[in-house]
Design goal:
Layout (H helix, E strand, L loop, with lengths): L4 E4 H9 L13 H5 L2 E2 L3 E6 L6 H35 L11 H21 L4 E3 L1 H4 L5 H9 L1 H7 E8 L7 H17 L6 E5 H30 L3 H42 L9 H4 L14 H13 L9 H36 L4 H11 L8 H36 L5 H28 L5 H20 L4 H13 L6 H10 L1
Parallel strand pairs: 3-4, 3-5, 5-6
Antiparallel strand pairs: 1-2, 1-4
Helix pairs in contact: 1-4, 3-4, 3-9, 3-13, 3-14, 7-8, 8-12, 8-19, 9-10, 9-13, 10-13, 10-15, 10-16, 12-13, 13-15, 13-18, 13-19, 14-15, 15-16, 15-17, 16-17
Bound molecules: zinc ion.
The site of zinc ion has 7 residues, from helix 11 and helix 12.
Keywords: Membrane, Transmembrane, Transmembrane helix
């Protein structure tokens, strides 16, 4: 119990995730990082990651997991409050354009600093982070901490994996998974959730969100300029030119990384199916059990891990069953379905929607002000005007989700193109298509509002929402096929007699 330690999330994230920098394996660590953790009774998240993956990618992943939803709530509340205050103060129409700024700024601040902010008013979220919670400076403490890893897992509510293609090739990451699977076998159907965040996806989501915020702000100011000028046609052309230019600059970058991500995700099933703990790498073995800097002998972590795996997965009644094979089978068959569900569909829905929706929220302020101001002319029915006002508020959330789905579809298409062409050529091929699609989504909806009086925007926004739904359906496979495969594997699997697997099945099916 004295080794059970957790670290407040805002401490783990402090200094833009400076504690996540890889320091030559996990060596050269001072006792000071251990001092950042404190004894705890329970933990919220068990953070599992491999050290070679970029600190910045891990930072963005953690910000999305822990801060994106509070940021959305804060942005919504601020946007609505600014609208109410502006209505109350009867601010002149010329100043409205500035009123979307507080919403965007709130999002950025809460997204970056939420854990720090909340630590001032409430108990911090306690998480497990290997480098800080297990002593690295004292071999004896380290060994006891590692042997007690199961206790850390048991006390955590959720396993959060910051995934990169290296993850399942590392011995320590595999061991953390083993700890989790073993805990699953003991706690029965009350299995804790696994959340897998591909770190590159986090990067893409942040880029797309910032892109959407910048576009929203830019569009507000350009439309404001258009409304101030007398002839709007010239400004429309200018507006389209700016959007096209911006898209031409940002798109190749987004597409290039997105295709890379899809390739990695496509590789994941193969990686899991071929999983072998014997081929998993660790720092000590890769360096011939000598510290590369001091040339001092290093104890072998693999021996420690194997010894623990034997205790957990060994079969005393039938010694012919190899415990390492048992563990490999657990990962290859039982973990497979859960990981694939989590990576291909599960988590996208809530985080992606949150990140994309929120960029359109500051615009709600303007919609509120316009609605409170009332129609400019008395022509037409009031209810039609009100429906149009509502559609104005709804068009950007729909457009942002549609943009996201379009990009995801393009990434998938890019991964298909890469079977024949290089990543660069595939990206170049996709740029005009993506640009054309995004303009096709954007222009008709905007145009439909320029016809005064009618309900044309209703058709346009409905089409937009339908398209978003269709693309979503095509891009994200539903969880069904994966689950069906799981059930089938349960029947044909040859390892059904191992209690650990049965308990895991009880949950996964
Ligand atoms: Zn070794």
């Amino acid at each position: 119990m004295d080794l059970m330690r957790g670290v407040p999330l805002h401490v783990a994230l402090s200094g833009w995730a400076k504690h996540w920098v890889s320091l030559n394996g996990m060596f050269n660590l001072s006792p000071s990082s251990y001092q950042l953790s404190r004894p705890v009774e329970s933990l919220e998240n068990f953070l599992s990651h491999d050290w070679a993956t970029s600190r910045w990618l891990k930072l963005l992943s953690l910000l999305i997991i822990f801060n994106s939803k509070p940021a959305a709530v804060a942005t919504f509340l601020v946007s609505i409050s600014v609208g109410l205050v502006a209505i109350f103060l009867q601010l002149p129409q010329e100043s409205w354009v500035w009123l979307t700024l507080p919403g965007h700024i709130t999002w950025l601040l809460v997204f970056c600093f939420w854990q720090r902010l909340r630590s001032f008013v409430t108990q911090p979220t306690m998480v497990f982070m290997d480098k800080i919670c297990i002593a690295q400076h004292d071999d004896n403490l380290k060994e006891r901490g590692i042997l007690g890893l199961a206790a850390f897992v048991r006390s955590s509510n959720k396993l959060t994996i910051l995934w990169s293609p290296r993850y399942f090739t590392r011995l320590w990451c595999s061991f953390e998974i083993a700890t989790f699977l073993r805990d699953a076998s003991r706690s029965g159907p009350k299995l804790k959730p696994i959340e897998i965040m591909p770190v590159k996806m986090a990067f893409l989501l942040v880029i797309l969100a910032i892109h959407a915020h910048a576009q929203s702000l830019g569009f507000r100011f350009l439309s404001y300029m258009a409304s101030q000028a007398q002839s709007s046609r010239g400004l429309w052309v200018f507006l389209l030119a700016v959007i096209t230019l911006e898209a031409l600059l940002a798109q190749p970058f987004i597409l290039y990384i997105g295709i890379d991500l899809m390739k990695e995700v496509e590789e994941l099933p193969r990686q899991l199916k071929a999983f072998s703990i014997r081929s998993a790498q660790c720092f000590c073995c890769s360096n011939g059990h000598l510290n590369p800097e001091t040339k001092q002998a290093l104890p072998c972590d693999r021996l420690l891990v194997y010894q623990t795996l034997r205790e957990w997965f060994g079969n005393e009644e039938d010694p012919s069953v190899d415990y390492l094979d048992t563990f490999d089978t657990l990962v290859q068959k039982r973990l497979f379905g859960k990981v694939m569900r989590s990576v291909t569909s599960g988590w996208y829905i809530s985080y992606s929607l949150t990140m994309m929706f929120v960029a359109s929220m500051p615009y709600f302020t303007l919609c509120m002000l316009e609605t409170a101001h009332g129609p400019d002319s008395l022509e037409g029915e009031l209810w039609i005007w009100l429906v149009r006002q509502f559609l104005k508020a709804a068009k950007y959330p729909a457009l942002n989700v549609l943009t996201f789905c379009t990009y995801m579809a393009m990434f998938k298409l890019g991964a298909v193109l890469m079977r024949r062409w290089s990543q660069l050529v595939s990206t170049v091929l996709l740029v005009p298509l993506t640009l054309a699609l995004l303009l096709v989504w954007f222009v008709p909806v905007e145009m439909s509002f320029s016809f005064t009086g009618g309900l044309l925007p209703l058709a346009a926004v409905l089409c937009e929402a339908l398209l978003a739904g269709l693309l979503w359906y095509l891009t994200f496979p539903s969880a069904e096929p994966c689950e069906a495969k799981d059930v089938k594997m349960h029947h044909v699997g040859s390892v059904g007699s191992i209690p650990a697997l049965d308990a895991y099945d009880a949950f996964s099916i």
